[in-house]
Specification:
heterodimer, A: about 550 residues, alpha+beta, Sulfite Reductase Hemoprotein, domain 2, Sulfite Reductase Hemoprotein, domain 1, 4 domains, six-stranded mixed beta sheet, five-stranded antiparallel beta sheet, 21 strands, globular, B: about 180 residues, alpha/beta, TIM Barrel, 2 domains, eight-stranded mixed beta sheet, about 20% strand
Chain lengths: ~550, ~180
């Protein structure tokens, strides 16, 4: 856990007080809705179809049990008893009243939580690997760097009114669990020939109506230069990013228009002016942040203890264990993923009661820590393996132990037309129907790892471009249609999906997904060849034929 | 539209001169960028103060030869969501060491006062009277700052190091 101090707390208090004044000015009519809009957006407040929506930042996806209970409290007191975890490791409440927002924010601030910069044309919540600090394959904890960047961009006086939003992600493992290459700016920690850690810098990734995979503009950036280099990128973007057309305002367009190489050169030129200035990172500053991340005092335990072996006799436990439990860097411990994708229910939703129980379980079994992943699941990052049978029982009792992690029903979906004023089509019911169709555990398991991502409009909050199967809701003559693409992925070999063919109506989507699954089963060379690898081998055509043969 | 300077409402001593109007002999003038660049040599000879209105899509490095003699640079926020002039302001103050008046003009609202101040502005054409009257109070709203900028405010990183008994790396020059 990162420990907030007096400075963080003072800032949040000052922020809540400012927002309280802004709401009062809006309610009195002193502020127009347009003027208020950007102020509320800077605090994570959107106006949605039915009500105001509040988005709370969960920096780099790390939550304490105390914070989780506070989210439960807000869900109960100000909302309808639940919240929705998003692909950017945030949580959203969908039913908050404007007049109550300042109180909700004050309650959140007590636990170090806020909605600052979860919206608006500024640098958004910094995301990272949900296994940061516990993954066996990481170089070091990327959250230290995410936190340094988070502090630097908080209320940045130069970069709070950028051409468009700006999303940063940081990773430090070979395997990319943070979808780095679909971010405006991403840092991947790796080591150079001399064994020093530094960052590969990628810019210009993003989905939306013009999707791009980020381009590498710096192969190795020494860690001391992280803030100066980001400052140079942001300064160029602030001055030269397009502001004439909202759909061309993201940095990806600027990078694409100039070309990655040219953009990199311009960044370098600007960077030379500032690289040895006051933003160059001092060892002491890095150490000061790093020491405020608290790590558990792990017990010396062995892998595969007798309690775990004994529990494997229970088939339900064994299935869950094989699916939802991952290797920890510390022997005798495990990383546990909590599926927020129960069959037939909205993806990423969590009730206040579940939040409270998860906080209790984290206190008892995971050193009071919880993580949020971009796939909209939660994680208990440090559970002793001997406790896994108990943890399974506790999670199963509250419905967050569905053994479908990384399977076809572990769907990423945006809120879609059920909540969002931008959406053209529903996303949640499509996800629900797909998960019901593949509810039979052996069927889902036989399909191996298969990511289905669904967006209710071209803004692509459901990451449809990078789903193994991507589904995009569109509107045709007032009816919901869905474009299907396949072969996308967001990992270290990120690529955009290939469009399958004409959009299908709402009633046909699940059948089309089933056709794709059947085609995969027929086409794969071996039982362990993944859908994405079959696609890579055979291309789009055989899938296309199967789906459109009867349509 | 009230002008705020030195934290209070002040009279504007500059006269705005349009592109084709004659430059008055006496008194401080504020000239559009194109006119300024065309007549720079002549304008710089004036005894009375000269200021320039610099749009947010022109490179401020073009102003460098004149910064010693310019009394005022007015930067423009055509809408408050267009933040280009924040970068221009920091470059002028911190990279090019401009010391004259730097005025925020356009859609200038109270909720951005702290940002303007941190970026180096010291004068503000405020749109609303209520906002201008609230300047002093609003400017003091925050006491916690994360970024080192030319305004010299102590950053959280430095405060923490002092608090935790490290040597203070403060002496480093702020550069943008």
């Amino acid at each position: 856990m990162y420990l907030y101090d007096e400075f963080d707390r003072t800032l949040l208090t000052e922020r809540v007080s400012e927002f309280r004044g802004q709401v009062a000015r809006r309610l009195s009519g002193e502020l127009t809705e347009d003027e208020f809009k950007s102020l509320r957006l800077m605090n994570g407040v959107y106006l949605q179809l039915h009500a105001y929506m509040l988005r709370i930042a969960i920096p780099y996806g790390t939550l304490s049990a105390v914070q989780m209970r506070r989210l439960a409290h807000v869900a109960r007191k100000y909302d309808r008893g639940y919240g929705h975890f998003t692909t950017r490791q945030n949580i959203q409440f969908n039913w908050i009243k404007l007049a109550q927002l300042p109180d909700a924010m004050a309650d959140l601030a007590d636990a170090g939580l806020h909605g600052m910069q979860t919206s608006g044309n500024c640098v958004r919540n910094i995301t990272t690997d949900q296994w940061a600090g516990v993954a066996p394959d990481e170089i070091e904890d990327p959250r230290v760097w995410a936190e340094l960047i988070r502090q630097h961009v908080t209320l940045h006086p130069e970069f709070s009114f950028l051409p468009r939003k700006f999303k940063i992600a940081v990773g430090a493992s070979d395997h990319d669990r943070a979808a780095l290459r679909i971010h405006d700016l991403a840092l991947r920690m790796h080591k150079n020939g001399a064994g020093e850690a530094g960052f590969e810098v990628m810019v210009g990734g993003g989905l939306g109506r013009t999707p791009f995979i980020a381009k590498t503009i710096k192969q190795f950036l020494p860690v001391r230069d992280v803030l100066t280099y980001i400052e140079a990128v942001l300064r160029l973007y602030n001055q030269y990013g397009r502001r004439d057309n909202i759909y061309k305002a993201r940095i990806k367009i600027l990078v694409h228009d100039k070309g990655g190489e040219q953009f990199g050169k311009e960044v370098d030129a600007e960077w030379q002016n500032i690289k040895d200035g006051s933003l160059a990172l001092d060892k002491d500053v890095i150490a000061d942040i790093a020491t405020r991340f608290q790590y558990p005092d792990y017990e010396k335990l062995l892998d595969n203890p007798p309690e775990l072996k004994a529990a494997q006799a229970d088939a339900r436990f064994a299935t869950w264990h094989a699916n939802s439990v991952s290797r920890h860097k510390q022997s005798g411990y495990a990383i546990v993923t909590l599926s927020l994708k129960p069959i037939g229910k909205p993806t990423g939703d969590c009730t206040a009661d579940q939040m409270d129980k998860i906080a209790d379980i984290a206190d008892r079994y995971s050193y009071s820590e919880i993580r949020v992943g971009h796939e909209q699941n939660l994680v208990l990052p440090q559970v002793a393996q001997r406790d896994l049978p108990e943890v399974f029982k506790a999670l199963d009792a509250i419905g967050v132990a569905t053994p479908n992690v990384n399977q076809i029903s572990d769907i990423i979906a945006c809120p879609g037309l059920d909540y969002c004023s931008l959406a053209n089509a529903r996303a949640i019911p499509v996800a629900q129907e797909i998960s019901k169709r593949f509810a039979e555990p052996n069927l889902a398991k036989s399909l191996n790892r298969l990511h289905v991502n669904i967006s209710g409009c071209i803004n692509a909050c459901g990451h449809h471009h990078v789903g193994h199967i991507g589904i995009l809701g569109v509107e045709k003559n007032g009816e919901e249609f869905y474009q299907i693409s396949i072969g996308g992925k967001a990992d270290e070999n990120a690529q955009l999906g290939t469009l399958l063919g004409p959009a299908v109506p709402y009633d046909d989507v699940v059948d089309a997904v089933e056709d794709l699954a059947e085609a995969y089963l027929a086409l794969r060379e071996r039982p362990d060849e993944l859908f994405i690898d079959t696609f890579k081998r055979v291309g789009v055509e055989p899938f296309k034929e199967r789906v459109y043969a009867t349509r | 539209m009230p002008l705020v300077k030195g934290s209070r409402i002040a009279a504007d001593t500059f006269t705005r001169v349009e592109d084709d109007a004659p430059i008055p002999e006496q008194g401080a003038v504020l000239v559009p960028a194109a006119r300024f660049l065309a007549d720079a040599a002549e304008l710089m000879q004036r005894a009375a103060p000269v200021g320039v209105i610099w749009p947010n899509n022109m490179d401020v490095s073009e102003l460098v030869p004149y910064l010693d003699k310019l009394a005022l640079v007015a930067l423009v926020f055509p809408i408050f969501r267009d933040g280009r002039a924040y970068s221009q302001a920091r470059l002028l103050r911190e990279r090019y060491a401009y010391r004259g008046e730097m005025r925020a003009t356009g859609q200038i609202l109270r909720d951005q006062f702290v940002f303007y101040l941190r970026a180096g502005f010291d004068a503000f054409d405020v749109v609303k009277n209520a906002d201008a009257a609230a300047f002093e109070e609003t400017a003091k709203r925050y006491s916690v700052f994360f970024q080192p900028t030319g305004d010299g405010r102590l950053t959280v990183a430095r405060s923490r190091l002092k608090l935790h008994g490290h040597r203070d790396p403060a002496a480093k020059r702020v550069t943008v």
